Amino acid sequence: MCAANCHPFNPPPDSSYDPDGDGSGTYMEYYRAVGTFSCSDCHAYETEASHPTHADSSGKGVDLGCYDCHDSSHANNTVDFPDGPLSTTTACDACHSSGGHYDGVDMAKSSWSDGAYSVDGTTLGSGKEGWCATCHDDDGPTINGRTAKNVSGDDSIYGYFISGHGNFGVSCTDCHDPQLTHIDGYARTYHAEECDTDPMRSYQNGYRLALMNGGDPPLVVPRTEDYDSSHFALCYQCPRENVVVGGGNHTVG
C-alpha cells in the first residue's frame, strides 16, 4: 500500500535518505531529513468528490490548505485527520455546523464522495434537498467572519420547509445559482449604492440569483423605473402576474 510504505526504494542512494539506518529508505524519511516537504510531492490533487470545493479560492469554496483539515504527521501511515478518519473526525465541525435542526456535519460526510449537487453543479442531488439548510438553520456556522443567516427557521412552526417556498416543492436551486460566489465575507452582499461599481455587491450576485433564459436579470433591483413584469422574471416563474399584483398601473414612488 502506497501510504503504508511511502514509496520505498532500496538501497537508498544517499545516507540522508535513510536516517534511521534500517537500510530501507523512503521518500518520507528523505523529505523529513532534508527539511523540504510538500503534499503535492507525493499526492496528486483529487479533482473529484468534494476536495475542489474546499480548496476553491474564488469565493465558492473556503480556500483551505491541506493542513487546515489533515494531520501532517502521517500517523499510522495514513493521510488522515488529526483525530481519526472521516467518519469520526471533528475537523468538519467548524464549517459544517452539527447543531440546529439540520446536522451539517453528518450530511457533509455522507456527501463527500458524490457531492451535494448534480453532475453539472446546477441543482441539488437526490436526497440532498436539505443541504442548504444545514448551514442556514437556527445554528449556522461562522465562516470568514460571517454567520450563515437562518432561512429554515425553527422547522416546526415556521421556516423554509414549513411556511416558505420549500413547503410548495420549490428547491433552493430553482431560484439560486450554486455556481456563483457564495462565501465572500459580506454579511449581506447587496448595497444599492455600490452595485454599479462593485458587481459582487449587486442584488443578483449577492443572493446568488439564477439568470433567466437568455441571460436576462432575475430581478431588477434597485427599482428605478415604472413597473414592468420583466423586472420580476424570477418570481413570475411560479405564480401568474395578475395573482400577485392584480390590475392597474404600478409606478415607482
Throw out a few tags for this protein.
elongated; 8 helices; disordered N terminus; 253 residues; mainly alpha; two-stranded antiparallel ribbon; two-stranded antiparallel sheet
Ordered list of secondary-structure elements with their pairings:
Elements: H1 2-5, E1 8-9, E2 25-26, H2 27-34, H3 39-42, H4 51-55, H5 66-69, H6 104-110, E3 142-143, E4 146-147, H7 203-206, H8 241-245
Antiparallel strand pairs: 1-2, 3-4
Instruction: Sum up the overall morphology in one term.
Output: elongated
Strand content: under 5%
Distance between the termini: 71 Å
- Give the proportion of residues in helices: 10-25%
Q: What average pLDDT do the residues reach?
A: 78
Q: SSE string, helix = H, strand = E?
A: HEEHHHHHEEHH
Strand order of the largest sheet: 1-2
User: What structural category do the secondary elements indicate?
Assistant: mainly alpha
How many separate helices?
8
Specify Rg, calculated over alpha carbons. 24 Å
Describe the main β-sheet briefly.
2 strands, antiparallel
Low-confidence stretches: 1-5
Number of strands: 4
Task: Characterize the quaternary organization of these chains.
Answer: single chain
